[in-house]
Design brief:
Largest interface: A-B, 57 and 58 residues
CATH class of the largest domain in chain B: Alpha Beta
InterPro entries (chain B): Bact_solute-bd_prot1 (IPR050490), SBP (IPR006059)
Distance between the termini of chain B: 43 Å
Strand content of chain B: 5-15%
Number of helices of chain B: 19
Shape of chain A: flat
CATH superfamily of the largest domain in chain B: Periplasmic binding protein-like II
Strand order of the largest sheet of chain A: 1-2
Number of helices of chain A: 13
Order of helices and strands of chain A: HEEHHHHHHHHHHHH
Number of domains of chain A: 2
Oligomer: heterodimer
Radius of gyration of chain A: 25 Å
Structural class of chain B: alpha+beta
Helix content of chain A: over 70%
Largest sheet of chain A: 2 strands, antiparallel
CATH architecture of the largest domain in chain A: Orthogonal Bundle
Order of helices and strands of chain B: HEEHEHEHHEHHHHHHEHEEHHEHHHHH
Distance between the termini of chain A: 56 Å
CATH topology of the largest domain in chain A: MetI-like fold
Number of domains of chain B: 2
Protein name (chain B): Cellobiose transport system substrate-binding protein
Membrane topology (chain A): Multi-pass membrane protein
Pfam families (chain B): SBP_bac_8 (PF13416)
Structural class of chain A: mainly alpha
Radius of gyration of chain B: 24 Å
CATH class of the largest domain in chain A: Mainly Alpha
Keywords (chain B): Signal
């Protein structure tokens, strides 16, 4: 009797486990097809020469040799980091302030402003490209050049010069993503109990102190999420340089993903593109590990307080 | 150590999830085409199902640019009610990327795909992915087409025909009569052609026009380079696909010539297919526009007033820029119906209609003999017999072998020219360009 019951229990547990696996399987199946397989396949591809149409030939480490001898590859890594920093940090700070303003009771029509702030995120990329190519135009009639000309600054060639390219692209990144992060922050802020602010106000805290001592600590998980996604997003930056520079993707503004895209679809060289993807993969893992490490440290020190 | 490994694993997992989630973003961009090979800078994909819903055969047809084929297809399905055609218009670069991906993956290709003249080289390694049109009866119509156009649509041995030619792009000189008159020249096509019969004349007149009116010769120096490039007898690769740019003086001369014009401040550096480039066509800030026949649609759209623009021959002959082929990817199941349709669409009568519609210049010489064609006058260009000018240019075209790496090399030269226009040293830029091209070719 006892053994029978035990075995039935086991099957029940197995059944439970099975249904559990069944429930989570859609994600894992999709992930295996669209995430894991391409990843594994690009590891495999990086040792081959393949133009996408003819059979592959094994070339060993030749693809890595080619990209490591290409100065543009190193420019692309450096550009990615520079533009990541230039696009991400100001964006997080501004998003935080905007979210705080939108969350405060002082602002009227806050729903309207919330919608407006989110608009850039849903704007068609083509429209963004046209607008930004007019704002950051090389000619003296470009908007920024025109404004600069009032201060006697010579027209800047926005898509050719080293820093201007990065400034222009970072501005696009900033403009497109600041609203998205604002909304995330706003959601986080709205989950902070009002009582905390009231208590702070009664204790005589200024707005600055409220942000620093109430909002920020309570917002830490959201902040971490935003920093995380922004870092990954910055490392995978592609759309903005692509629409700003066109298919030529000049060295001054090419990013790592743009570099591997150009190898694959501009030059039909899927082997070197995969090799570049693997280097990118390694870099992202290292950065994410550092990110996690910092997050853990910060979390621990807080508990001590 | 154990903690570190855990951390690394966690990082790996997080990354893979985030990568998987973020993956969709990259492909969603629509490219604002800046390539000079784009026939039209359209970026939207439009789809039209033409023909009855219960037709036995449905053909999917990918096209790019402004072809006006929708009207012709209406005509075809009316005569052939058992066929319906799903016409999908895409941006030119997107179309070729999509076709490449679907052929490489072995699924998703249309029944009929329009492929641009220089892009077709990229697909020639994949004979097994296309129907050989010779097997479907293309030898019957071979004689209808210009020989060099036909040749460019087949493999090296001439045994495999990838596509039927639609149009060609003989290059001519569009010019603004008002600017020439202001500078004190006779603005009739004959006089302008006479005035600008050599590239040396072109540079001298550019200087005079600039002195007298302040206008530039042209706003995109790139177009002057393209014009001279398309006149060259060899460009970047020889017919054995060997890289010959370093020894090819014709291209270096073209490069130096444009660099001189930049240095003298006689040509502008506006990138093609940008809003400011389109806008420039309507103000009298420059005198000439060197471009192929199909460019007339672009000019008409952007500068609607009649009688300002006119057309004449280019200095020192003509070249060919663009034009396309209709190919049948082997994935399509109705090759015979598809072939019947493309044979009809590229027949002289239909090519003439496409010329009337959007200025697509016919690749079938029979059209040049039609009286309607010879007498075709375009009131936009001051009642000029445009067909005449384009036919003359078409006859002067010397076919050039391009090779599959033509556009990557061309892009690097354009980048060098761009840098020269902003004041960099031309020899340094030339060397830097050769370096970049070397690195690209190493991958092949």
């Amino acid at each position: 009797m006892a053994t029978k019951e035990k075995s039935r229990k086991l099957t029940e547990r197995k059944q439970n486990a099975l249904s559990g696996y069944l429930f989570v399987s859609p994600f894992f199946i999709l992930f295996a097809i669209f995430g894991l397989f391409p990843m594994v396949f690009s590891f495999y591809l990086s040792f081959f020469r393949w133009d996408g149409l003819t059979p592959m030939t094994y070339v060993g480490l030749k693809n890595f040799e080619i990209i490591f001898n290409d100065s543009i590859f190193f420019s692309s890594i450096w550009n990615t980091f520079l533009m990541g920093i230039m696009g991400t940090f100001p964006q997080i700070i501004v998003a935080l302030l905007l979210a705080f303003a939108l969350n405060s009771a002082l602002i009227r029509f806050s729903n309207t402003f919330r919608t407006l702030v989110f608009l850039p995120y849903i704007t068609s990329v083509v429209a963004v490209a046209i607008i930004f190519s007019l704002i950051f135009n090389n000619q003296s009639f470009g908007l920024v050049n025109y404004i600069l000309s009032m201060f006697d600054v010579e027209p800047i060639r926005w898509n050719q010069e080293y820093w201007p390219v990065k400034i222009a692209i970072s501005t696009m990144v900033f403009w497109r993503w600041v609203g998205y992060n604002t909304i995330i922050f706003l959601a986080g802020m709205q989950s902070i109990p009002k009582e905390l602010y009231e208590a702070a106000k009664i204790d005589g805290a200024s707005i600055g102190q409220q942000i620093r001592l109430v909002t920020l600590p309570m917002l830490k998980p959201v902040l971490m999420f935003v920093v995380f996604t922004a870092t990954i997003g910055a490392l995978q930056l592609f759309t903005e340089p692509f629409i700003f520079l066109g298919r030529g993707l000049r060295e001054e503004g090419i990013t790592m993903v743009a570099y591997l895209w150009r190898d694959a679809f501009g030059y039909n060289s899927f082997g070197t593109a995969s090799a570049a993807a693997i280097v990118l993969f390694a870099i992202i893992i290292v950065i994410t590990a550092i990110n996690l490490l910092i997050t853990n440290r910060v979390g621990r020190s807080k508990k001590v307080q | 150590m154990k903690n570190f490994l855990k951390l690394l694993l966690a990082a790996l997992f997080t990354v893979s999830i985030l990568v998987a989630c973020g993956g969709g973003d990259e492909d969603s961009n629509a490219d604002s085409s800046e390539d000079d090979n784009a026939e039209e800078a359209g970026t939207e994909t439009t789809e039209a199902q033409i023909g009855s819903d219960d037709a036995e055969v449905e053909l999917v047809f990918w096209e790019f640019g402004n072809t006006g084929y929708d009207v012709l297809i209406e005509e075809y399905v009316e005569a052939n009610p058992h066929v319906s055609i799903n016409l999908i218009n895409q941006d030119m670069n997107d179309l070729h990327d999509n076709l490449f991906t679907s052929i490489s993956a072995g699924s998703g290709a249309p029944d009929i795909a329009m492929v641009e003249e220089a892009q077709i080289e990229r697909f020639k390694v994949a004979e097994d992915q296309f129907y050989n049109l010779y097997d479907l009866g293309a030898d019957q119509v071979e004689g209808d087409f210009l020989e060099w156009v036909w040749r460019s649509g087949q493999n090296g041995e001439g045994s495999f025909q990838f596509g039927l030619p639609t149009d060609i792009g003989p290059t001519v000189m569009f010019y603004r009569t008002d600017v020439f008159e202001e500078a004190g020249y006779d603005s009739s096509p004959e006089a302008v052609s006479e005035l600008l019969s050599t590239w040396e004349d072109f540079a001298n007149v550019a200087q005079e026009i600039n002195d007298k009116t302040g206008a530039l010769m042209t706003d995109a120096g790139e177009l002057v380079y393209n014009a001279r490039r398309d006149q060259a007898t060899e460009t970047y690769f020889n017919s054995d696909d060997e890289f010959i740019l370093e020894e090819n003086n014709q291209i270096k001369d073209a490069y130096d010539y444009v660099a001189d014009l930049f240095d003298a401040g006689l040509v502008g550096d506006i990138p093609l297919w940008t809003p400011e480039w389109f806008a420039g066509m309507d103000d009298a800030s420059y005198a000439v526009f060197l471009g192929p026949a199909w460019m007339q649609g672009v000019i008409k759209d952007n500068s609607p007033e009649e009688g300002i623009w006119s057309i004449t021959t280019m200095p020192e002959g003509a070249g060919n820029w663009g034009g396309s082929y209709l190919t049948l990817p082997s994935e399509g199941e109705n090759s015979e119906e598809a072939y019947a349709f493309i044979e009809w669409l590229t027949a002289p009568e239909q090519q003439f209609k496409a010329f009337q519609g959007y200025g697509l210049f016919p690749s079938t010489p029979a059209v040049y003999e039609m009286t309607e064609f010879q007498e075709y006058e375009d009131s936009y260009f001051g009642g000029l017999n445009t067909a005449q000018v384009f036919s003359e240019a078409a006859e002067a075209v010397i076919p050039v072998y391009k090779g599959r790496n033509y556009y990557p090399v061309d892009d690097e030269i354009k980048e060098a020219l761009d840098n020269v226009s902003s004041g960099s040293d031309r020899e340094d830029e030339w060397e830097a360009m050769l370096d970049r091209v070397g690195s690209v070719l190493e991958r092949q």
